[in-house]
Amino acid sequence: MENKPRARRRANEVGPSGQRAARNLEQLREERRLNQDELAARAGRVGRPMTRQIVSKTEAADRRIDVDDLVALAIALGTTPNRLLLPGSAGEGELVALTPEVQVSALDAWKWATGEGPLPAGEALPGEQMLIGDDTERLFVRENQPHNVPGPYFRNVGHDMRKHKKLVRMIAAVVVEAKESGVQLGRLTRMVEEVDLWQLFGSLDETVARLTSEGEG
Asked: How far is the CA of 97 from the CAs of 36, 84, 101, 205, in angstroms?
C-alpha cells in the first residue's frame, strides 16, 4: 500500500500542548466554581485584561494561548503554568504529546517540566543522537531548579573525606559500579535520596527485598 504524505499542520494551528491547556483551563475553572466572566476579571486584576469571549475561545482552542496569557491564567486560577500545560496525573503508562513529534510518559513530562530530569534520550530532538554524559541529569537539575541549588557545603568536603576514609572508599566503589552500569551521577544522587527516605520511614529492608525479588522473577 502506498503511504500517503502526512498533511502539514498550519503554522497557526493549536498543537497538542495548546489543546491540553485549553481542556485544563476549562476543567480547573469549573473545579473552582468560576464562570468565564469571573476568570476574565481575575486575569484583568493581575494585569492581563480579558473578556468572557477571550476565555471562551481559549477553552475551545479557537484561540492560541501565548505565554503571558498562560502565566496570568495560572495565577488567576491559583495554579502553575505547568498544571495548565500537562495532565493532572503523572502515570508512567500515560503518553503525553508535547509536540506533534514528541511523545513521552506523563511521569517523564512532569519530571522534565519541574526540572527533575531531562527528557528520555532521543526525545528532545527526534532523529538526532542526543549527547549523554555522566553529568547530564545533574547539570539539567542545576539549570532548571535554581531555587534548589545546594549550599556551600563543599568547603568541608576535603575535611569530611579525610575524616571518613572508609566511607569514601565505599562511595568510590558505588560510583564506579554505577558508571559501569550506565547510571548517571544525577540519577545515582536521587537514588541515594530515595534510599534515605526509605530508611527514614522504616521501609528500607522491605523495599530492597521487594525490588530484589522482582529482579529475580
From this structure: 27, 14, 8, 38
Report residue 99: phi and psi, to 5°: -140, 175
Alpha-carbon torsion (138, 143, 148, 149), positive or negative: positive
The dihedral sign for the CA sequence 64, 66, 68, 72: positive
Distance, CA of 139 to CA of 124 (rounded, Å) = 16
Taking the chain (217 residues) in consecutive chunks of 10 residues, what is each chunk's mean pLDDT? 49 88 98 98 97 97 95 98 96 91 94 91 52 64 82 61 86 87 78 73 66 56
Give the model's pLDDT for residue 1.
Answer: 39
User: For residue 171, how many other CB atoms are within 10 A of its CB?
Assistant: 13
Q: What is the pLDDT of residue 4?
A: 47
> What residue spans define the domains of the chain?
16-85, 153-216
Residue with cell 566511607: 167
Where does 16-85 sit in CATH, by number?
1.10.260.40
Q: What is the pTM of this model?
A: 0.66
Q: Cell 538526532 identifies what position?
A: 128
What's the CA gap between 61 and 77, in Å, rounded?
A: 18
Where does residue 108 rank: exposed (0-12), middle (13-18), buried (19+ CB within 10 A)? buried
